[in-house]
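ugh ok fine here u go
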Amino acid sequence: MKSKIISKLGKEKGEISLPKNFTSKIRPDILAKVFEVQKLIYSQQYGSKPNAGAGYSASGIIKHKRHDWKSSYNKGISRIPRKIMSRNGSSFNWVGATVSNTRGGRRPHSPTSAKNVFNKINKKEMSIAMNSAFSATMDKKYLQLKYTEEINSGLIFEKEILTLKSKELFALFEKLLGETFKKALKKKKIRAGKGKSRGRKYKRSAGLLFVIGNEETMKRKGIDVINVQNLKIADLAPNGEPGRIVCYTENSIKEIGEFFN
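structure:
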């Protein structure tokens, strides 16, 4: 399978043979599986503080014994650990503490940082998932399912495009992508509903991904730029769903065939 190479002026410069990564069968099930595994690999481990909920003195297990100091006998109270707020002789004003069914107590099954949340993935499955992600960036069917409209993706540019300024680069994208350019730039909007008060106020679109060679460099606001060696499933298929607007440089296409063989 061959694809056209576009110059920095927006004209066809020649053709390039695409590696088998872009023509392999798309497997959404394996793609989603590998996405979940990689999400755990790049996530930060978390856990509760070892002595959380026990930062004060509680009297321990209340004794249910007649004529004993700090006894719950004949007081009509349950035998849970309690901390004393005040007392008058042998009469105590105390509240339950430490255990999980009390205010400010420990969580019954809190997460521990020592827990192993990482999973392994077979090399063959990893290869199938990456090839599925590459193929979906040029597959009209999966792109339409993802964006609910016809999408122009998978353009390949000569390396001189990296020398363009942002204004010139985006003007070129707008010319070549057409209606797709509206979805190519990252957008950020305030979420509707209660999620605003639950730590996820904003929704962000993925936008366009520009894949460059390992020796190439470029920084642009409004789009994601990544080297071939740093590519992950989450870059090519956000949320584990196949399909994203992606453009490549000529060098990156050659390196993808060598790096992900």
